[in-house]
From TrEMBL:
<keyword id="KW-0028">Amino-acid biosynthesis</keyword>
<dbReference type="InterPro" id="IPR030960">
    <property type="entry name" value="DHQS/DOIS_N"/>
</dbReference>
<keyword id="KW-0067">ATP-binding</keyword>
<dbReference type="InterPro" id="IPR046346">
    <property type="entry name" value="Aminoacid_DH-like_N_sf"/>
</dbReference>
<dbReference type="Pfam" id="PF01761">
    <property type="entry name" value="DHQ_synthase"/>
</dbReference>
<dbReference type="InterPro" id="IPR036291">
    <property type="entry name" value="NAD(P)-bd_dom_sf"/>
</dbReference>
<feature type="domain" description="SDH C-terminal">
    <location>
        <begin position="1557"/>
        <end position="1587"/>
    </location>
</feature>
<dbReference type="Pfam" id="PF18317">
    <property type="entry name" value="SDH_C"/>
</dbReference>
<keyword id="KW-0521">NADP</keyword>
<keyword id="KW-0862">Zinc</keyword>
<dbReference type="Pfam" id="PF00275">
    <property type="entry name" value="EPSP_synthase"/>
</dbReference>
<dbReference type="InterPro" id="IPR016037">
    <property type="entry name" value="DHQ_synth_AroB"/>
</dbReference>
<protein>
    <recommendedName>
        <fullName>Pentafunctional AROM polypeptide</fullName>
        <ecNumber>4.2.3.4</ecNumber>
        <ecNumber>2.5.1.19</ecNumber>
        <ecNumber>2.7.1.71</ecNumber>
        <ecNumber>4.2.1.10</ecNumber>
        <ecNumber>1.1.1.25</ecNumber>
    </recommendedName>
</protein>
<dbReference type="GO" id="GO:0009073">
    <property type="term" value="P:aromatic amino acid family biosynthetic process"/>
</dbReference>
<keyword id="KW-0547">Nucleotide-binding</keyword>
<dbReference type="Pfam" id="PF01202">
    <property type="entry name" value="SKI"/>
</dbReference>
<feature type="domain" description="3-dehydroquinate synthase C-terminal">
    <location>
        <begin position="200"/>
        <end position="366"/>
    </location>
</feature>
Amino acid sequence: MGSAAQLTKVKILGEETIFISHGLFLGQVAVDLLQNVKADKAAATKFALVTDTNLAPTYLPAFERSFADAKARIGDPASKDELFSYQIPPGESSKSRDTVGAIHDWLAQNKCQRDTIVIALGGGVVGDMVGFAAATYMRGVPVVQIPTTLLSMVDSSIGGKTAIDTPYGKNLVGAFWQPKRVYIDLKFLQTLPRREVINGMAEVIKTAAIWDAAEFAALEANADQVLAYLSTDRVASEPDAEIAAILKRIVLGSARIKADVVSQDEKEGGLRNLLNFGHSIGHAMEAILAPQILHGECVAIGMVKEAELSRYLGILPPAAVARIVKCLGSYGLPVSLNDKVVRRRSANRKLPVDELISIMAVDKKNAGGKKRIVLLSAIGTCYEPKATAVIDRDIRVILSPAVQVHPRAPVPNSVTCTPPGSKSISNRALVLAALGAGKCRITNLLHSDDTQVMLSALTQLGAASFAWEDNGRVLVVDGKGGAMKACSEHLYLGNAGTASRFLTTVAALAHPSDVKSTTLTGNARMKERPIGPLVESLRSNGIDVTFKERPGSLPVQVAANGGFAGGEINLAATISSQFVSSLLMCAPYAKSPVTLRLVGGKPVSQAYINMTITMMATFGVHVQRSTKEPNTYHIPAQSYKNPAEYEVESDASSATYPLAIAAITGKTCTIPNIGASSLQGDARFAVDVLRPMGCRVEQSERSTTVTGPAPGTLMPLASIDMEPMTDAFLTACVLAAVASPGGVTKITGIANQRVKECDRITAMSSQLAKFGVKCHEHDDGIDVLGKGLGIQAPTSGIFCWDDHRVAMSFSVLALVAPGPVTIEEKECTAKTWPGWWDAMSQEFQVELEGIEPAAPLTNGTNAVPRNDKSVFLTGMRGAGKTTAGHWAGLALGWPFVDLDQELERVHNEKVDVMVRTHGWEEFRRRETALLKQVMKEKSNGHVFACGGGVVEVEENRQALINHKNNGGIVLWIHRSTRNIVDYLNIDKTRPAYVDDIEGVYNRRKPWYDLVSNYIFYGTNVEFYGSKTAMETAEREKFATLLRSVSLRTPHSFERINKKQRSFFVSLTLPLVDQEAAPMIRDACSGSDVVELRVDLLKDPNEKAPGLPGIDFVIEQTSLLRAAINIPILFTLRTVSQGGKFPDKAVEEAKALYHTAFRLGCEFVDLEMSWPEDVLTELSESKGTSRILASHHSWIGMSWSDGSWMTYYNRALQFGDVIKLVGTARDSEENDALEGFRRWANKANPSTPLIAINMGTLGQLSRIRNPVLTPVSHPALPFKAAPGQLSAREIRQAMTLIGETQAKQFLIFGSPVGHSRSPALHNTLFADVGLPHSYSAHDTANAADLRDIIRRPEFGGASVTIPLKLDVIPLLDGLSSSAKILRAVNTIVPTDGQLIGHNTDWKGITTALKQFGAPAAEHSASALVVGGGGTSRAAIYALHMMEFTPIYMVGRNAQKLQSVADDFPVEYNIKVLSSVDEIKKIGVSPMAAVGTIPADLPIDEKLKGLLKTALSLKAPEKTDDAEGGEIRTRVLLEMAYKPRVTELMDLATEAGWTSVPGLEALTAQGVEQFALWTGIVPDYAAARAAVLGEQQ
Ligand SMILES: NC(=O)c1ccc[n+]([C@@H]2O[C@H](COP(=O)([O-])OP(=O)(O)OC[C@H]3O[C@@H](n4cnc5c(N)ncnc54)[C@H](O)[C@@H]3O)[C@@H](O)[C@H]2O)c1
Ligand SMILES: [Zn+2]
């Protein structure tokens, strides 16, 4: 073990009390304690060791043995000494008063005196808490710290700060109590979880950052090794000597510095503040994000923010910030709150800037009302020897996602500004200097991911050594003159395109080492970028290059040839000039001089080729351009000679912004390192754009100075081709916007800007519009209409599409806006100029303010994005695609196109004829062409049904897959094989199948599965009993799926979340079938969601017990949806979690979960015991499903000691809802659970928690659980879990414990004596277990209601004739339907207000649907009889059911017309007043509603009209293979008495189904009940009560 095992002692406060080594704990600690730490050698001493339950099993027994051994060795003086121990639960919750109290009591019980030595064995939690217990027990007993986490080794154990947390703050109560010893044993790190080690690294990096630049550089260098080590099995084997030494250096380095600082300032007078770097902001974040995000992780992000603050204040150079970010990142620490893992682990918790700032106000460092923050001036150096006062405004800018730019800044008359180095030049300079011989000091190098990748790769190849000087301002490259070695480690290039192209050739120059080739790879995006032509050229020149994955892209394996042959090389340079530059730069090292010939057409980006050639000359190699041949270059064979200094020119695109500031404000700005000799295209911006606009431009070879004209006097540019400087067009646009009013600037040549970070042309025109500036877009350009200084201040922020150039250009325009301008996503400038806002604020003196927009913008608007991509239906013929297509068209309001019919139309030939005359091949070809065409031309807003055979063609499959991958919906219309086969055997209108039908089906099935992202599975008529019932239910089922996956309706989760109580019923059935359906409906009454326990289903063909097949599950889920249309929770409960699904069947489980997502199950239960990668994969592909992350425990885990935290934290990462189910051993566990629930609901209000205890003792927790409580139902065969209650039982219990108060409900109107409503509602209240009562109140005077409805016990009311209008003035508001119907039939108290609703229309739709009316498809009409108050409800209802037109007949046509006129035109209402008029309609309406009084005979004339209307010919079903069936027409009578009316008789005679009014009454009553209680009751019970047939 060499040096790591050697004991090192560190001095603190004048004494060497910190011991560090590997193996110390079981080696020297016991002896040292007994011989040196104990005060009185003669007296018997008690050693009281406290540790946590994580550590005790691993470490305590061995230590007890080593203590006993030591005693034996020392002999007599130690023989009476005792070691005893105490264990606490792990985790921050143990840093509490309760735990300290328990330890005090334990010490007292053990008769511990002043001389007792307390030992804290553990991480910071144990150390802090035990330290505090020791500091306070008997006014202080000695303490020894044995830190076991990296964080505690380098930080918390050293320095004597001890503390506990209180509800009012972390570490709020504590003491300074120096330990007698700190034993740091590096061996503990072997068992410390990876995330905890990384967590500790944050403090290590912090310590180096404030104090020791060399230490920091060492950390940078060791990151890869440390991370690699953490991925090994550390427990199994000891670390090798090298890594052991690195770890020791890391710990020792930090511990020394901390000891040093503490020694100079023990009680934190100032210097010790410095250790708080990153903590001011980090702590504030931790206060919100703990415990999901660890201390070190928050501090890492805090350090980045505080470093950015230092940079913003002009104290820290940008390069230093970049190094800090890079270093933290390279140890796997998060560097931004937007970090994906941080977002996931914290369940997207919001961190409002105001809240962060207010938390920062309670920092012990603050003084005099000002916040104090540790600022750095360099890596390893702090700005002051203490924290520095910083104003809130500056902190706010750093923390805010958006920035507000204030106009009329006092911009200095003359500013010199050096933008960051050019990326292209930086990359070339690195390659050239590395290939060259000798030292080259490069300045103004761009610090970016791209250059970082280049540096690392060149280092890996041994091409050069690199060192930073002057705080990162200078990079010293020591080039090895082309001597490189192939390396076994892959060169990982991320998405750095330039690096990949340059390095592919560089790798060929390497010499073989222990490996003979080098592999270059990158991220997924990189693996799509082309490199083929370059590789071709290299191959042709004798280099062996292999594509490892996809031909033409990385990863590539390049043979180490020590150079290539040279001579003539041809290269296709039409894709990228980087191929050319790559060969050019390496060509001098070829074995003979190279002639490079660019072939295949005009090379792209000649400017970049010239840049390379010019830079090569600076490094001593002169390329000759051939005078005889076009695009041909001669490169001599020689080495580069490095210049001593090389300054990277600033990025010319970036330079356009400071120059534009001068132009727009009339001031002067100089860019000191870009001039006429610049190699960059955008360098021409000053001369070609600014000068003609009226600026004074002075340019030397190496610098540019621009002075703007008086503000508002810039001139427009009649026409400018910006092809040579496309990136600068955005800057030109904002200047053109303030050019003289009316002047148009026409910019062309910028077509490529439509496919950058965003479509920049559209972006500019949409955002300039916010300033009142008009633009015209062209394919390759934009016209901007100048407004001078007459531009407006935008009323909303500037949306940047995360595009740095959009953000920077609008920040320039903001300087002359009439009011402040908010730039959203300010951090996007980091891509090329992280310090842009700093420069704005410091150099240009612009006033900036941090802003947090209320809601993050998406695509520039706040609306929830609906999915408007076209829908494609696929599946076998006979599965019902055409019918589904019509439904889809109606549900989405889009045209529906059957592609088979469209094909027939286009070619004017029937499909079967087409196949017969031209053959299958030609038919398929035409089909493919049509599919491609509609995908291109009608990619939005259409529904298409594809022919069953489209999936036979690979090209079509790919097209459908692309559509789905781009966010479109491809819906597989699926049904049982038998159904399809039956259908196809009947249908003769389509070409016969060549193979047997089942064979075809089995071949296509996997393809349908492959191309689709959602499945609709049709249920047969046998299940429903009648065709009418089937069509109605299937259409609903389909619409539910489609609306939800196309994001038309809000997810049911949102509605459920708003309810005070919600339930899901667990179906414990073996089979969902026709027989079970009524029981299922019964069991679901009163629940919000139904849980399908898939593991309990009995698949007759199951592969293993509890393991149903996919097809079976698809069918069962669909049958459940057919039985009852409420949200489904799809659950696979594994054996170990109390179910039947095999624990090991991971792959099968994954397939089933994916199926659930594709079936559109609203909720899917995911057990947190599945492997993490499975959870990640599933949660990323959940589609519109919400995940219920669950964990069940039978071992009686406690809710109070943090045991559940691991599961909770995991669930928070993957779940939209969390479900934790424990076991109650005693009733106190229910109280503990409530404490946990309170904590969780406060900490993560947007992720609802279902927390319950199983067993009879746990029933109270079920009664108290507010959201989605799992319930049973008496109708079900057995309960899903012990102690499960029914929803009714829970509600009854809530009444008993006083959480529900009995309310009074009434019906107002006259006469109401015979109303069936009291029977209905009282039955339902009893049925669901609510204590309310409902009674009749007969009155015709609205004034009588005034007081009653304001009484506290008033629960709600029904309102009937004659009060439906009179009641309105008494209420506080109306629902949308009540507003349209201008009548109220229901009063609902909502949030302290009385809201009027109208459920009459709902009663009509429900009754009509139940009797089959909506089976009417597209373009069916309906009829309303009468023009009274109820007719309005009827019209509204029929419109909601998508009937059109809606006809009206009645006695008085004029009165009908006035009702009709009152509705919007799209209701398409037509009043029919004569028999002739009616006859002209031709086709019968499919639904009718009678609203005329039934106590008198029908007027003769009206009767004549009715007879005609009702006997119009009903349409036949045509798209059904059986054909010829008359469709069901339904008339609903709204009068209740007599039970069968004259109108109903007329309808029945004409072949209609007549429905009595009590059906509608039931339906609207059920709706009322749901409005009052939030409960959907049992419909059958309601119906029975209304009809007087009480069950
Ligand atoms: N006093 C100070 O100056 C100071 C400084 C920094 C942090 N702190 C405090 O330290 C606490 C955080 O300490 P921490 O990060 O060490 O966390 P911790 O003490 O909670 O330990 C982290 C986890 O690792 C486990 N563990 C510890 N050592 C292990 C090992 N060798 N092998 C396997 N598992 C092991 C623990 O049981 C625990 O579950 C916070 O309360 C913080 O306020 C104090
Ligand atoms: Zn810390």
